[in-house]
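Review form for a predicted model. The reviewer records the input and the model, then writes brief findings.
Reviewer: anonymous (R2)
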Amino acid sequence: MVEDKTLQSEGEQLDEILAELQQQHQVREIAGWETGFANLSRALDGILPGLYLLIGPPACGKTALAKQLLDQVAMRNRMAGIFFTFAESKKELRIRTLARLSGLENRAIRRGSAFLLHWYGVPKAHYKESDQVPPSWEKLKRAAEESKDWLELTYLVECGCEFNLEQIEERIKELRALRGSEHVLAVVDDCQRLGNRELPARDRLALITERLQGVAVSLKIPILAVWPDLGEQPDTAPQAWAERAPGADVILVLEKDRERTKKLTEPNEAITLHIVKNRGGERGKLTLDFYPALAKFVETSAG
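Model under review:
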């Protein structure tokens, strides 16, 4: 934004800001965009421009949570979202999204309508008409149709091994031009692939987060970056990540809660989400249930 050439004091501009605030008739509980998780939205004060770093061990649902967050932000705030993936294909991400939206397991969706027909207890048959499909497939199609309006706001980008930060920035700018809006949420899954792999993980983390934060500031958008905790330093408390990634504005750490998982009867896993760094918001922890077969997280209660 270009500054006015004529200097004006804060007192001279006071009436202008008061008039702007008065136009915002709706009283909001949070300053930023809704996440779709009530407790998380309150703790973060919503999603605002800056770098959000999501960290967790393998198989704890990092990618699933990042994709669900992007989808929920797009749906609830009517803003565009772009998901950069280094490890998952577009097809796999789409299957997981359909599983979460329809309640049908992702492994069933992968096997197609013929399998769904048999799996849900309907006798097998050969359908000649395109509209004669099994009830489970109809459920899937209905969920997709009901979500189409906000799915049109989300974009997936498969990144090759040579994909770099400059290309990510260019794709974000391209999306803003395409949508005619500056408001974009970007997710970078497996962001460790952006750095020099010859560097130790700790040094790579600091450099990558600093550069991603620079992009977030330059473009004035929120970026959610996903980093795997591969156990290079075992038995490290979640709070230690705040020192390792000083460039991040917000740091969220996923941790499996094995004791609570033992008490669950459903095929889900208990997860604790630690908020270890939070610019202008609360620190603490939230409890989530993760349903791997549906690639879905459900917020349970504040920790």
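Findings: The first strand starts at residue 50 and ends at 56.
Further findings: The two ends are 40 Å apart (CA to CA).
Recommendation: see findings above.
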